[in-house]
Design a protein that fits this description.
mainly alpha; two-stranded antiparallel ribbon; 2 domains; 2 strands; 14 helices; globular
Amino acid sequence: MESFSLILAIVVVTALAFDFTNGFHDTANAMATTISTGALRPKVAVAMSAVLNLVGAFLSVEVANTISKGLVDEAGIRPEVIFAALVGAILWNLLTWLVGLPSSSSHALMGGLIGATVASAGFGAVHGDVLVTKVLIPAIAAPLVAGLAAMFATRLTYRLGRKADGKASEKGYRAGQIASAGLVSLAHGTNDAQKTMGIITLALVAGGVLAPDSDPPLWVIVSAGVAIALGTYLGGWRIIRTMGKGLTDLQPQQGFAAQTSAATVILASSHLGFSLSTTHSVSGAVMGAGLGRKGGVVRWSTATRMFVAWGLTLPAAAFVAAVAEWICGFGSWGTAVVAVFLVASSFAIWKISRREIVDHTNVNDHEAPGEEPSGVVTQAMAAVTPPPAGTVSEELSATIPAPNDPASPAKTTV
């Protein structure tokens, strides 16, 4: 086997950077509902999620093998192709984080890998059957299955608890919500951390460090788990705000139903080797839980923006990765240009994000980006609400001259 080259080292570092962005981009999947309902304090929630993400990374390598062995032809892949794929995925993650949209880090990575591979080796190097059966079909099915499961679970939960004491029931569901949030975090580690393991393993095979069809080495598993855990601890507060407050208003019963349904879907997909999007699963479950409560609503303007982002993820990441691969094809200076562009773009996005800081101190304080405003009728009614009984509004007072003596300075107040 060959020793590590400079480009291979760059690819590994970039892959871990993507894993880091995946962590803070997808923290909302596990903890948004727990934070929005007050079941856990924000910093405690993300710390718990980070630890469980790390544990989950060691439970399976099935998804890693799907990426490293199944999606593209290993023989036609060079380390530069992996680097270009990661550039497309990282930039899409950062852009959607900036606007607070819960899009799929998994599909960003898939799109980047497909775009860079096509630019390098043509469409024949992409295994279309794997793409359809283990990426595209789960992408459509996951939010539907999780949403329906959460909707029925929410209705069942309210039906079974309708005679229970309100405060005791709410306390119990908050405890259940913490447990289900932990399960989602564990499931996220088993699914998303493995994607980075798979991409690093693919790069090592392409660089001649590992033999084809190799499983991820232990150091790859450990580094990927640590990177996603660190990103998770930082907390993607913008996306947490959207997921927890922007889609619907959740009560503890709904949060418990949503997270349990999503965790079940994610863990089942990890066992089967499906490269599932945890974002799609949890978002679908949150909307299903919103519809499952009588009087509950889903804010479809926010949901529509989210659906558009989902549809754009694969092609947008693929396009950026294809352009990056074309530039890398000019040689070492081309790879350097792409690396500088990635660092500069990431820094620019971070600077823009500082104009409106969202963190653990204000994640629940304001309306989520894109949340539907109050209707015109509601605003008009609020504007003409009469003052409390027994008070005189200062806005209704006026002074007029006394009618008997126009020149008199005396005034009457009404």
